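Table 4 source record.
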Amino acid sequence: MPHNVFGKKLNRDTGQRQALLKGLAGALIRSEAIETTEAKAKAAVPLIEKLITQARRARLSDIRQIESVIPDRELVQKLVHELAPRFKIRPGGFLRLIKLGNRMGDNAPMVRMEFTAPATPVPVTPEPKPVKKTGK
C-alpha cells in the first residue's frame, strides 16, 4: 500500500522525481512551450498550474514559495510579471497538451506542453451618462 506518493512515480525515487518536475516547470517558463513524454507532462501539469495560481496573487509569501520550486530569480520574475497577468481573469486550465505521436527510438507518446492563449476580455462600452440640464 503506497503512502505519501504524489502523482506518478515515473520510475524515479522522490528526489529525482521532484528535480525532474522542477526542471520541466523551469523549462516551460523559460521557453513557454516544450516537448516531452505524455507521462511527464501529465505529472507536471498540477505543479505548474499551482505555480501560476500563486504568481497571479503575487504576495511576498507566494513569491517565496515559487522561489522554493524554481530557484532562478529571472524565471520567477518572468512568471510573476509576464505570464501570470495573461491569466488574471482565467479561472484555470493554463496549460495545453498537444499530442505529437510516438518517439522513434522507444515508441513513447510525445506531447507539446504550452501555455494556453490568454482569455481576451469582452470589451464593455459604458453607457453614456445623462447630462444634467441647468435651468436659467
